[in-house]
Write a structure and sequence with these properties.
This protein is of the alpha+beta class and about 375 residues long. It is about 40% helix and about 25% strand.
Length: about 375
């Protein structure tokens, strides 16, 4: 009985193994691709990954960073909005800098007022007082001389009528009055001459220094309002009201890195395509004047001919098209830029990846 059970179990295991082998041996059909890959439209075309960007005469998109640090209090534009050069885009809290600028302005104005006061000397009222002091000293000297003359006449008529001591005192009084008059006249001349040129020059330098300090502070205050450097379109805004930004950028919650506060693109009817050609294919490129290229939109059958713009003549380490600077690989590439007229019936945006084939133009 035991042997019979073992035999039955063995037969069942064998059958299960055969059924499993048959089931797992059936070849499954692969699922259809999400979209047909772009086929090379040229006989010897060179393939390249491309990324769409705004069309610029030089460089790429305009990344705007704040020149000062602070908290964002206003965002004056929206993504996709067309802007003009000099248009305010974002406002950073400037309360501390505004107070410092107002203080420096007051200091410069006080220095200017003191400079004008020095240049306006002598003051009419002060000169009148000094002149009155000269007249008073002159009158005192005349009075002292008159007293001395009277005593001398009396002494000459009768030496006993005036003591020698009184005559000496009168002579000393004249000398004192004469000296006092000379001092007061010199003081009058000094007052009449106005402020000393060295004092005026020193105050002028003080005023210039404070004015330049105020101008520098005012220029720094203006940087708390970020303005558009050129005409363009707002592609992205990374900051929000209440977030902190600095010259290094603003914190990106998703990438956990620093990103520019705003990114601007061109306003032209063109879009650009930046292609990266692997260094081992660079020697196969035709002359730039003979470039022919087509761009294929992934997920569609749409292909668009490209117009050659320029080659950036510097082979650099490849950066993945996510544009994260940490994603370098051990490959060097040559950037080539094309452009195309933005089609009206196809939605295309900067940052979109495309397939590009490059070939020599057929004559």
């Amino acid at each position: 009985m035991r042997n019979k059970v073992i035999f039955i179990i063995a037969i069942v295991g064998l059958l299960a193994g055969l059924v499993s082998a048959y089931i797992f041996g059936i070849e499954k059909k692969p699922p259809p691709p999400a979209f047909n890959p772009a086929s090379n439209p040229y006989g010897k075309g060179i393939y390249s990954n491309g990324i769409i960007e705004s069309s610029q005469l030089n460089g790429a998109n305009i990344n705007i960073f704040s020149e000062v640090s602070g908290t964002v209090v206003k965002i004056l534009v929206t993504e996709g909005q067309r802007i003009r050069s000099g248009m305010p885009l974002m406002v950073i809290d400037d309360s501390v800098q505004r107070a410092a600028t107002a203080q420096q302005k007051s200091q410069a104005e006080a220095a200017r007022a003191l400079l004008e006061e020095l240049k306006a000397q002598p003051r009419k009222e002060t000169l009148e007082v000094a002149k009155a002091q000269v007249d008073n000293a002159s009158a005192s000297l005349k009075n002292a001389k008159d007293q001395l003359d009277k005593l001398r006449e009396s002494y000459e008529l009768d030496p006993k009528s005036v003591s020698r001591d009184a005559l000496d005192n009168a002579e000393n009084a004249v000398k004192v009055a004469k000296t006092a008059l000379e001092v007061i006249r010199k003081q009058y001349d000094l007052t009449k001459a106005g402020a000393w040129t060295y004092d005026i020059r020193n105050q002028e330098n003080q005023y210039i220094a404070l004015t330049k300090g105020y101008q520098a502070s005012s220029a720094l205050l203006n940087k708390y309002t970020i303005k558009a450097p050129s005409d363009g379109v707002v592609l992205s805004i990374s900051a929000a009201v209440g977030s902190f930004i600095s010259p290094q950028g603003t914190y990106d919650t998703y990438t956990q890195g620093l990103a520019p506060a705003l990114v601007l693109g061109g306003t032209q009817d063109y879009l650009g395509v930046r292609c990266y050609i692997d260094e081992i294919l660079v020697h196969k490129l035709p002359q730039s004047a003979q470039f022919a290229a087509k761009m294929f939109i992934r997920g569609t059958d749409v292909n668009i001919p490209l117009e050659f713009v320029r080659v950036q003549p510097y082979v650099s380490p490849k950066i993945e098209l996510s544009n994260q600077r940490t994603e370098r690989v051990d490959v060097r590439v040559l950037p080539i830029l094309f452009r195309f007229v933005k089609p009206k019936n196809v939605a295309l945006y900067p940052g979109q990846l495309v397939d590009v084939y490059i070939n020599e133009q057929q004559k």
